[in-house]
């Protein structure tokens, strides 16, 4: 009897404590499903926000051997018509390596992976640029000029001024030996002696290469890259690979026309002689630059966040976002308020929850919610988020019946005593309303 | 290289019967196990041991009836010459996850093919899993293009094994006849590296 009374009192105390803590969190999180413009048999969706704040969705529709890349633009809460970018029956379509769309001030650019005839699983990065004057997509070009039939992919893009675009990708040109019969090669001549490289280039609005760089001569083979525009210039994050098979997340930055030496965002020291197929995500706003990534040192899966206040030059210690039951597949956006939005998959066997969390620029957790129930299967793909104002838009592939692209909008309503505010005076901080 | 399939997998009625049998066996085993818990400790040891043996025999019988429908790269049931159409239920398994995007996976495939040939008469079977979970037609087409000679499991068969999805590729699991994970190998494997592990684990090969 006495124990019951004590237990009840303890529960009341805990509840009161949690309620008190709750005032520092978003009071209400509204998750609204948006009717997607994509029909059945669609997947590989990606969301981007252009410089004017418009949200665009791209996706791939697969029917038999044919693949078609589409995009649509969100007007209010309704998607505009689905626009075909390109289609083909010789694309390399993969759940982890999928098309990117960038919208510049003078047009658009989109890419897909084109199988090359010479190799059995070699593919090139082909892109088309949208000509605003002629109001049509131009002829496809291959963005890398190596002429080597090898693996090229895991592209990320950034729009630049005057219709230019920045692209970074993994480039397997060095993985092919001079003679295909060289020992240690596979059936199509790939070898382990030359490593996967990270490359980047800037293109004009018609697709002409203006600049071209090799950023890293040895990277992980099959993890997506990510790029963002900081106040100091473009930053690229990716999964590195050292001679000792350490596969941590690295960053390199274009500062004053030169790429900085790649450095680790966090010294996880994940030694793994294989590829996790689980790349990082980066977002930037002003000098604030944030990176989220998956790691699994000692078979302990984790999603971590690191924050930089100096354009990615240095990062604070990692913030643990999730651990144990997660398979990563992260995405990131920074909201108008300066809050950092992160999405990832929290797994429960074959099921998974698509999680979304908001962190302050100092790394404090502000809100966390489940956007949708999904599957941990690779077929559910990599969810992607983008933001407009302080709303977060999330896209993923639902595989419960057919495969179909889904989009949700997540809107936060804050308590009166805490509104996330980003000011010029305190770029890196959240100020309480009324302070 | 394995020979072409000549036997059909068990029909669905046969498999349903076996599934029913397995379920009823498991249900009975659980009831017996619960009763044993109430017995004195000395009796428990003997009866638990008997129960385990009976369980293994019955499970192997039902597994034989169910049939393990691993398929070859060409989509037909894969088999060794002069053996039943289905995998031996009590075989040790080397389960290799591959992906077309994974260069090191492709490097190790010829080694695994050779190993499969050499282990053809043993109680150790090599099985492939398409990490990318493509549909069956695509998976079999990719397996052919990759030159994989060993059987590629269906998604349902992978689910049945209950393996945790690997956090990096390539990953190779070695499973006991009861599908317990004996070890997980990450990175490129060779014939020699797998033989070394089989020896270390005292797995007859």
Mind explaining what this structure looks like?
Chain A has one helix and 31 strands. With 435 residues, chain A is mostly beta strands. Chain A has a single domain (27-414), classed as Neuraminidase, CATH 2.120.10.10. In chain A, the strands form seven sheets. In chain A, strands 2, 3, 4, 5 and 6 form a five-stranded antiparallel beta sheet that branches. In chain A, a hairpin with a 2-residue loop joins strand 29 (384-388) and strand 30 (391-398). Chain B has two domains: 12-66; 92-200, Glutaredoxin, CATH 3.40.30. In chain B, strands 2-1-3-4 form a four-stranded mixed beta sheet, covered by helices on one side. In chain B, helix 1 (12-36) runs antiparallel to helix 2 (41-66). The radius of gyration of chain B is 19 Å and the shape is globular. The interface between A and B is medium-sized, with 39 and 27 residues.
Annotation keywords:
heterodimer, A: 435 residues, mainly beta, Neuraminidase, 5-stranded antiparallel sheet, 1 helix, 5% helix, 49% strand, disordered C terminus, B: 205 residues, alpha+beta, Glutaredoxin, 2 domains, 4-stranded mixed sheet, 6 helices, 4 strands, disordered N terminus
């Amino acid at each position: 009897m006495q124990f019951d009374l004590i237990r009840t009192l303890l529960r009341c105390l805990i509840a009161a404590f949690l309620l008190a803590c709750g005032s520092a969190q978003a009071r209400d999180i509204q998750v609204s499903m948006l009717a997607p413009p994509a029909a059945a048999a669609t997947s590989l969706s990606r969301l981007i926000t252009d410089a004017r704040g418009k949200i665009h969705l791209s996706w791939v529709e697969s029917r038999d051997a044919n693949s078609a890349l589409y995009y649509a633009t969100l007007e209010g809460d309704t998607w505009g018509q689905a626009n075909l970018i390109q289609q083909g029956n010789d694309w390399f379509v993969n759940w982890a390596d999928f098309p990117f769309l960038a919208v510049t001030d003078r047009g658009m650019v989109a890419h897909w992976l084109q199988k090359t005839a010479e190799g059995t699983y070699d593919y090139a990065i082909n892109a088309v640029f949208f000509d605003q004057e002629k109001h049509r997509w131009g002829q496809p070009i291959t963005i890398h000029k190596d002429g080597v039939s090898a693996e090229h992919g895991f592209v990320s893009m950034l729009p630049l001024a005057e219709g230019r675009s920045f692209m970074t990708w993994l480039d397997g040109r060095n993985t092919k030996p001079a003679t295909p019969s060289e020992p240690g090669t596979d059936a199509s001549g790939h070898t382990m002696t030359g490593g996967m490289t990270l490359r980047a280039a800037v293109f004009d609005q018609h697709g002409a290469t203006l600049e071209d760089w090799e950023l890293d001569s040895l990277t992980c083979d099959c993890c997506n890259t990510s790029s963002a525009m900081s106040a100091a210039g473009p930053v690229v994050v990716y999964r590195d690979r050292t001679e000792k098979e350490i596969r941590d997340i690295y960053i390199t930055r274009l500062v004053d026309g030169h790429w900085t030496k790649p450095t680790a965002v966090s010294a996880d020291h994940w030694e793994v002689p294989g590829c996790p197929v689980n790349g990082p995500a980066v977002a930037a706003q002003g000098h604030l630059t944030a990176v989220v990534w998956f790691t699994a040192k000692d078979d302990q899966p984790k999603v971590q966040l690191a924050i930089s206040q100096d354009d990615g030059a240095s990062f604070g210690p990692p913030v643990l976002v999730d651990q144990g039951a997660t398979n990563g597949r992260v995405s990131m956006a920074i909201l108008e308020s300066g809050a950092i939005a992160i999405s990832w998959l929290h797994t429960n066997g074959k099921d998974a929850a698509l999680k979304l969390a908001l962190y302050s620029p100092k790394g404090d957790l502000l809100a966390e919610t489940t956007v949708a129930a999904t599957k941990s299967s690779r077929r559910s793909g990599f969810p992607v988020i983008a933001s407009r104002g302080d709303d977060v838009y999330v896209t993923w592939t639902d595989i419960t019946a057919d495969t179909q692209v889904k989009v949700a909008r997540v809107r936060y309503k804050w308590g009166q005593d805490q509104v996330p505010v980003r000011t010029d005076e305190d770029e890196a901080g959240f100020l309480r309303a009324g302070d | 290289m394995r020979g072409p399939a000549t036997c059909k997998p068990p029909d669905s009625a046969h498999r349903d019967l076996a599934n029913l049998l397995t379920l009823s066996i498991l249900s009975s085993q659980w009831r017996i196990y619960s009763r044993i818990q109430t017995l004195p400790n000395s009796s428990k040891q003997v009866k638990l041991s008997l129960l385990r043996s009976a369980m293994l025999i019955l499970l192997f019988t039902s597994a034989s009836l169910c049939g393990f429908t691993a398929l070859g790269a060409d989509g037909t049931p894969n088999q060794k010459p002069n053996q039943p159409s289905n995998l031996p239920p009590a075989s040790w398994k080397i389960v290799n996850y591959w992906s077309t995007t994974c260069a090191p996976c492709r490097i190790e495939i010829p080694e695994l093919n050779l190993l499969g040939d050499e282990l053809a008469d043993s109680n150790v079977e090599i099985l492939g899993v398409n990490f990318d979970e493509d549909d069956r037609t695509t998976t079999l087409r990719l397996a052919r293009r990759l030159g994989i000679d060993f059987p590629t499991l269906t998604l349902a068969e992978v689910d049945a094994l209950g393996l945790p999805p690997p956090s990096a590729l390539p990953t190779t699991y070695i499973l006991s006849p009861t599908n317990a994970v004996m070890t997980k190998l990450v990175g490129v494997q060779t014939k020699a590296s797998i033989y070394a592990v089989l020896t270390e684990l005292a797995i007859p090969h």
